Q: What sequence folds into this?
């Protein structure tokens, strides 16, 4: 009996690019899911109520509440930043992957180089998302530096999609 085989619609390089894109999509979904739980109430409301309690009381009993509210605000901002960075990472890789698959119909399919650049971008973005999640990326300069590296990789990757 002859074995049936599924048709091979995608090259291994296309499969690798879509796998990296899907991993970033899953990370974005996880970041969107986790962000609300990192701060159950919006920190500005908590901070306002703590500062109101502190200004109305003569004791320093509300000072720990203000410190906790500011810590909650930091956690909330970190969660929002993580979700934004995960979304940006996914959209950049998704754009180049779609470009490779659209142009591949014209005879210029994804190659070893494009798959390698996609995986390098994924690895860099994983490290960057871990840095953001750990709270060590509080500067715009860090975000701009990471974005410059990712954009450079993806511009090269996007350019490789087009022949000539």
A:
């Amino acid at each position: 009996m002859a074995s049936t085989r599924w048709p091979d619609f995608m090259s291994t390089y296309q499969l690798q690019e879509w796998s990296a894109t899907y991993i970033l999509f899953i990370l974005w979904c996880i970041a969107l899911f986790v962000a609300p739980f990192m701060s159950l109430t919006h920190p500005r409301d908590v901070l306002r109520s703590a500062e109101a309690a502190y200004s109305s009381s003569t004791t320093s009993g509300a000072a720990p509440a203000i410190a906790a509210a500011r810590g909650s605000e930091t956690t909330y901002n970190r969660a929002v930043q993580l979700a934004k960075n995960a979304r940006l990472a996914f959209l950049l890789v998704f754009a180049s992957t779609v470009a490779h698959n659209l142009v591949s119909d014209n005879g210029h399919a994804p190659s070893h180089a494009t798959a390698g650049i996609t995986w390098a971008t994924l690895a860099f973005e994983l490290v960057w998302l871990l840095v953001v999640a750990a709270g060590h990326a509080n500067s715009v300069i860090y975000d701009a530096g990471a974005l410059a590296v990712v954009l450079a990789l993806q511009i090269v990757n996007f350019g490789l999609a087009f022949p000539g």
The longest helix spans residues 63-103. The chain has a mean pLDDT of 75. The CA atoms of residues 102 and 161 lie 9 Å apart.
